[in-house]
Design a protein that fits this description.
With 345 residues, this protein is an alpha/beta fold. Helices cover 34% and strands 24% of the residues. The strands form 3 sheets. A 6-stranded mixed beta sheet has the order 3-2-1-8-10-9, with helices on both faces.
């Protein structure tokens, strides 16, 4: 089996070319800027050059590119966008237009065209070809999807998705999709792009991919507490007998060591309320059940060191499945693919 696993984050996209007959230590791996950073940089360069921009392509993650759009408009320059590209900024196209974005299908001759999308297959194909590698037909991709929510907070819609997955079993298969739910527009955009290009896609959310990937570290003994400190978001989950039974998600930049310790203590004791996280600007919390005790605590993600050094987490270890923390989410995707393979038989 050959599989390309891509974990798309707010700052980086982490890529693993997994082959069954190749040891992980010898596998092809890349850590590249995420597409939202790349698109944001292109918009910023156009702003510095005094050029209008035309955004076209699939809906993608916001973050850096959405911030760049706002800076572009604030500079008095024009931003044009197709409806699908505009949905990157907000699910409500009326709100996008209210910001000053002009929605249209064709590119004005004066504007610099910038392609949107969480994946750039032509770029990946060129990179692989430089080293005599071919892209495999099977791709597993993780993105963080807030869900379609033009009239409600996207934090609520996103957390409903996570809660429903836990209620449906909370296993790895509960979070992996051959066909994403209709409300998950970012996942659907990635899935559609890959399917049109002839690939067999599997789509996951980044948080669960990291949690299940970290559980592959041999030091993980369940019941366990696993925390992924991403550049944008932090996910903490209780894993018991291969199931996520409790979870909270917050913005990493809003967490202090003291706040983290308080949230973790309440999660592990079953006292954490959804409102406590949501009202603080986070996404939410959900507890299905809690184990009698936690046997191991593992942390992963690019922002893990600042919390490890703070001493906020007792006896925590830095997970590095396959000897490389940066492929944690990718290994969660590989594990999901192995369990979903029967869907294609």
């Amino acid at each position: 089996m050959s599989l390309l696993a891509i974990d798309v984050g707010a700052g980086t996209q982490d890529i693993l070319y997994y082959q069954e007959d190749v040891p992980l230590e010898g596998s092809t791996k890349m850590v590249l800027p995420s597409s939202t950073v790349i698109v944001g940089n292109r918009i910023n360069r156009a702003r510095l050059a005094g050029k209008d921009v035309f955004l076209h392509g699939p809906t993608m993650g916001g973050g850096a590119c959405t911030a760049a759009v706002r800076w572009h408009l604030a500079a008095g320059l024009k931003v044009y966008a197709t409806p699908t590209a505009a949905a990157t900024i907000n699910d409500s196209l009326e709100r996008v237009e209210a910001l000053g974005v002009i929605i249209r299908e064709d590119a004005p001759s004066s504007a610099e065209a910038i392609q949107t999308g969480d994946l750039d297959l032509p770029a990946l194909r060129r990179a692989f070809q430089l080293f005599d590698l071919d892209l495999p037909r099977d791709l597993a991709v993780a993105v963080q999807d807030h869900g379609y929510s033009p009239q409600r907070s996207n934090r609520i819609v996103r957390f409903e998705h996570l809660r429903n997955a836990i209620r449906s079993g909370g296993t790895l298969k509960s979070f992996a999709f051959r066909q994403p739910p209709d409300a998950m527009t970012r996942m659907l955009a990635v899935h559609s792009y890959l399917a049109i290009e002839g690939f067999r896609p599997l789509i996951m959310d980044t948080g669960p991919a990291a949690v299940f990937g970290a559980s592959l570290d041999p030091r993980c003994i369940e019941p366990s507490l696993i925390i992924n400190f991403g550049n944008g978001h932090t996910v903490a989950a209780l894993l018991d007998e291969g199931r996520i039974t409790a979870i909270f998600e917050h913005h990493t930049s809003w967490l202090t060591p003291e706040k983290l310790r308080n949230l973790v203590d309440k999660l592990c004791s079953g006292r954490l309320k959804n409102s406590e996280v949501f009202d603080d600007g986070g996404h939410g919390a959900y507890i299905e059940s809690i184990p009698e005790r936690i046997l191991s605590t593992l942390v992963t993600g690019p922002r893990r060191e600042q919390f490890l050094k703070s001493g906020a987490l007792r006896d925590a270890v830095a997970a590095s499945p396959g000897g490389d923390m940066m492929i944690t989410g990718c290994l969660g995707l590989v594990e999901a693919w192995n369990r979903k393979e029967d869907l294609w038989r």
